Amino acid sequence: MSSGIWQRGEEKEGVYGFLIEDIKKEVNRASKLKCCLCKKSGASIGCVASKCKRSYHFPCGVQKQCIFQFTGNFGSFCWDHRPVQNTPSSHCTVSSQCTICLEYVEHLPTYSILGSPCCKNAWFHRDCLQVQALSAGKFFFKCPLCNNSDKFQSEMLRMGIHIPEKDASWELEENAYQELLQHYQRCDVRRCRCKEGREYNEPDSKWEIKRCQYCGSSGTHLACSSIRTCRQNWECFECRSIIYNSGDFRRPKKRSLPNTENIGITNCLLEQPSPKFSRQSPRTQNKNLLRSPKILRQGSLTPNSCLDKPPCSRRLRLIPPLINVAAKTPSTTKREVSMLKRDISNILRELGYQIKQKTRKLYINKENIWNSAIKGFRRRNFNPSDAIEVQFCNGNGDTDGSKHEFLSLLMGQLESSSLFEGSMSKNLSLNSEALKENLYFEAGRMIAISLVHGGPPPFLFSKTLFNCLVSGPENVEPTLEDVEDSNTMQIITKIKSSKNLTHLRSAIHDCFEYLSHIGCLRLVTVLSDKDVLVKDILTHHVIKRVQAPLDSFQQGLRTLGVLETMQKYPEAFYSILCHKPETLTSKILSDLFTMHKLSEAQDTRAVGFWMNYLQNVESGESVVTLEDILLFATGCRSIPPVGFQPTPSIEFLHADYPVGTKYYNRLTLPITNTYKEFQENMDFAIRNALELEREKNYYTGC
After folding, report:
1. Are residues 104 and 141 in the same domain?
2. Residues of the chain above pLDDT 90, percent
C-alpha cells in the first residue's frame, strides 16, 4: 500500500517482487513523513486524489474509514475522497436484512454498508463481505443472491474489499467431505424390533439394514418392515409422501383377475407388480413399488389377506394407498398423507442428520446450569452441528454427564426463567437487561439445539407465541388469556365491560395517559368501538411491546434450520411446543426399556417383580411416580420426541438397591426374594435420590 514503491522484480525476486533496495528507500522516505492522524512518523501511504496531501499509516487509515483498493495500482483514498456507490434514491427508502448475517441494515450507502451492483435490494455490512471474501477466495466470491461474479467482484474491489487469490477455505479443509463416503446404517422405523439396537447390521440376515432406494438417508432392518429379501426395494415414508403428492403419480387402471374370490380392495397390497399385469416401463414399476402395507389404515389387512399366501398364488389388484372404499373421499387421502409428512419424530430425526461425528465437550456446573450452558454455547469454537458431550463439574470432581439430563435441566430452567411470562402457556416478556445481554437469542438457540440433539422441548409456548413464530406477528390476534400483567388486564376489563358510550368514554378518560403512551388512544363514537380499542391494546401489549425480544428469539430458533422447519410443519411442532408431554403408563415404560436376559430360574421372578411394580406405581400404591422412575434412569421426566439414544435398558444384579446410570440410560434392578422387599428397596432409593437432587437445586438456586 505504500505510495513510493513499485513491484519491479519477478514474483520470486526480493519480497514477492519488491526489491530489497526499493524497500529500504521507501522506509527512508516514510521516516520523514508524519501521519496526519496519530502525528507519528512512518506514514508511507498517501491519498491518490490529485490535490490531497494527506499521509497516514495503514492501521490509522482503517480506523478513520479510508478505502484501500487491493487491485490495480493498490491505490488508497482518504475519508474525504474515498469512492462512493451511486444508488438511486428510490432504493434508499426501506431497510432489509443483510444477506450474510441476517441482521437489519439501512438502505443507505455508507462506509460500513455496501449495496450489490447486480441486485438492487441486496445490502451488506462491509465486515460481513470482507469475512466472506477471505473465506471464499477469488474463485468462489460472488453475489449471495444472484451468484454474479465478475460485476460483483469488480465493485467490491473498487470499494476496498480484499479478495485473496486462493481457493475457498472449505475446499482446503482436510477430509472435508469424508462423511459422504460413509453408508447410512441405522433403523429409523418407529418400533425397531432388533434387541441389539438400531445401529446393528448383520448382512444376509433379517437384521440387515436396507436403505431407502430414493434418498438413501433412512434405513430399516428387513424384519422391522416385513421385507422378505434384500433385493426387495424399500422407501422411507418421506419419499412415499413426496411421490404420492406429486403430479406424476397416477392411479393404475383396475383390471379384473380370474379366481380372485371377491378379495376386498383394502384387504391387500402388492410390494411388486403382479405377473398378471401387462409389461410396464421401469418408471411405472418404480411407482407401483411405492405401495406398501405400512401406510394403510390399521385393520385394513385381514387375517385372510393374500399377503399371507405364497407369492406364486397371489392374484391381487393394485390400488392407490390410503383410500377407504366405504368413504370414497379424496380429502381423506390428502389428510392422512399430510399427517404422515408431519410426524414430529421423523422431522426432528431428519434435522438430526446435520449433526457431525465431531464431538464438542461442554463442561457444565450442575449447580448453575443456565450460566454454564450460555458460557459453553458462546465459546468461539462451539458449533451447534457438532455432537455434544457433557461433563458435569462440581466440588466432588468431574463426572461424565448425560446429554438428555443436561438438556432436560436446561429446558426446565428456560421454562421458569424471566424471559417468559404466564402460568401455563407462556408468552415472551419484556426484560431490558436480558435483551441487552442477548439472552432471547440464547433461549431460541437452546430450544433448537435441544430438539435437534434429541432432548426434550420446553412445553411452554402459548398459541399466540407459536403463531407469531410460524405465521408472523402481523397475522396473529392475541386474546385476554395472553395478558399476564394485572394492571393491563384491569384496563382491558374496564373498557370491555362498558355498557354504554358514556361509560366507555369515562373508562378511556381514566386510563388516558396509558393509552396515549402506547399509541392506542382513539376517538370513540359508537359503543362497538370498544372492541377495536381492546384489540389494539392486546396487540400492543402481547406483540408490539416485545417485538425486539421476538426478533432476537426467532434468530436463535433459526439455529440448525429449526424455525424454517416449524413454519413448514406447524401442526407437528404445535403438539410438542404448546402441550405437556404424554402421560406415562406402565405399558409405555415397560416397552421403553430393553431387558438383558437372566438365567431361566431368575428371569420369570425378577421380570414379574418389575412389571408388578410398574402397575402398582401407576395405580398410586407407591410413593414414587412413573415420571420419577424415568428421571431416575435417564435424567428426563418425559420421553423426547426422537426417543433416547442409547436405548434405555434394564439389568438385574444381586444388590440391595437399584442404580440409575443416566449416561447409558441404564436401570440396574436388585434381585430380591420377595416382591415386598423389591418394592421397598425401589421406593427408598428412587425417592431419596430425587429428594437429594431437589434439595441441592433449592439451596444453590438452580
Report:
1. yes
2. 27
